[in-house]
Amino acid sequence: MATKMRAAIFVEPGRIILGEKPIPDVGPLDALIRITTTTICGTDVHILKGEYPVASGLTIGHEPVGVIEKLGSTVRGYQEGQRVIAGAITPSGWSNASLDGCHSQCGAGTAHGWKPLGGWRFGNTIDGAQADYLLVPDAMANLAPIPDGLTDEQVLMCPDILSTGFGGAESGRIRIGDVVAVFAQGPIGLCATAGARLMGASEIIAVESVPARVALSRKMGADHVVDFTSEDPVSAIMRITKGRGVDVAIEALGRQQTFEWALRSLRPGGTLSSLGVYSEDLHIPVGAFAAGLGDHRIVTTLCPGGKERMRRLMAVVGAGRIDASALVTHRFRLDDIVTAYDLSAHQRDGVLKIAIST
What we know:
Number of helices: 11
Shape: globular
Mean pLDDT: 93
């Protein structure tokens, strides 16, 4: 077996390169997977732009699809050569956060206090998936076998954006008959739209202006699509709901404007479910927040991970409840990942998600 591998390495803000690294050694609880397909996430673009800090020299990426190359000495229940995915969030299964049911924050506690995003390790605190090989920690808690008959692209969205989008719908506690608004129909927002439909929303209002995303939004379950460039989205939502407002508003972009629109579109007692990654401080307008007296809920979600979450998401895909592969608009080889980053960062050519094959 070779000792070196290709990897997309963060050097400094504005610069990710395809370099060479040693293939990782496998510890007793780990698994080494050979990556067959991965992708570029919006969070990776935040890293590229310097809006989310990571260490120089880190391999980026957190959406792996691959084949088990080597198993740690204590790992049971898997076999080499097996097709698997691992979530972007990799809980240990035994931490306080994991045992309390908050897998996404596993590892958040430190001797110096609490740090969020503890469960997000790939491409954040340890080397990630945009490489020939990926070391998966706590493999028995995180590796999920891919069901026979599902392609790499069908399950490629499960590790992050499908889990995140569905998580936003779940955190919003959507009930059968709810009216839901989803602000922005990028990959996360589209998955949130699909999640709202699966949870029983009777009416879904998407806010989007890009024609290709508008069309895909309707395919994912949107009943109405409001173009924010041609009309005020809050006024449009109030018109559609006959002045009632929505039960749940999902913010899927990470901007002050969309957050405020989402808050203003709620009915009294409604829930704002926030999925965006914010790179600047948020401000809550007193009027939109009803001076704190509107019985509103504001909740945030970091995508749930772990093998059971991945199993459930792949079951949804396998049952035909969502066609996640429809989000793949472009395909590149790992050798061309710098070009792929340029396309994704500048949102050219109608890009949504890029499948990167090794």
